[in-house]
């Protein structure tokens, strides 16, 4: 089992009980995302965690595939879907690449609080571009630390990971992320900051037809 998988499995229960730190921004993200949804859409959320966001979005789309590396997170997600009487979410253990969706098969991909945890963000963005239909949307919420003193976490993260106290964390710049999306064939529909010190960046990007 990969070290990050062990970490997220270990903290799944605690994570599920942690309240959203910025409820107003979370509700805004939900609302803006749902404005792009329609009842016939097929959606993929990777890094879905305990499934809260997928459960919120499920009534607005045809189907959601929700994937995460941590099976303990997914079990909580399945329970939340059952409790909410939601039946159009399928939870899968694995990574975006392992899911291996067909080319141009999805209407929307969600990657929330995940891009800054990936060792190869570029490959992930390329894969998202491949599996989205022309005109499909990629919704992301990403911690961008390059202009914050918190960028020093890059020196602490390997120690924290070794001790099992934190997952992989990578320092990203907002400008760099936007450039990567544009180079992968996306246009930026929405882009705004949230969270402490405005280090969170919410983006809705559309795959150019």
Automatic annotation (TrEMBL):
Q: Where is the Methyltransferase domain?
A: 43-136
Q: Does the keyword Mitochondrion apply?
A: no
Q: Which GO terms describe its molecular function?
A: methyltransferase activity
Q: Which GO terms describe its biological process?
A: methylation
Which keywords does UniProt give here? Methyltransferase, Transferase, Ubiquinone
Name of the protein in question: Ubiquinone/menaquinone biosynthesis C-methylase UbiE
């Amino acid at each position: 089992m990969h070290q990050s998988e062990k970490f997220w499995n270990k903290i799944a229960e605690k994570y599920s009980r942690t309240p959203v730190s910025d409820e107003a921004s979370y509700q805004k993200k939900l609302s803006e995302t749902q404005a792009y949804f329609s009842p016939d859409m097929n959606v993929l959320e990777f890094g879905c965690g305990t499934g809260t966001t997928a459960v919120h979005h499920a009534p607005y789309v045809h189907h959601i595939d929700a994937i995460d590396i941590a099976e303990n997170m997914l079990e909580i997600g399945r329970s939340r879907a059952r409790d909410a009487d939601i039946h159009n979410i399928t939870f899968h253990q694995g990574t975006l690449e392992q899911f291996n969706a067909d080319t141009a098969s999805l209407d929307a991909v969600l990657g929330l609080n995940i891009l800054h945890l990936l060792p190869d963000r570029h490959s992930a963005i390329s894969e998202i571009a491949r599996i989205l239909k022309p005109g499909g949307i990629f919704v992301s919420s990403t911690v961008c630390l390059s202009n914050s003193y918190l960028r020093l976490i890059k020196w602490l993260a390997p120690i924290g990971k070794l001790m099992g106290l934190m997952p992989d964390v990578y320092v990203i710049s907002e400008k760099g992320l936007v450039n990567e999306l544009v180079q992968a064939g996306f246009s930026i529909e929405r882009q705004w900051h949230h969270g402490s010190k405005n280090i969170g960046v919410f983006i809705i990007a559309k795959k150019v037809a």
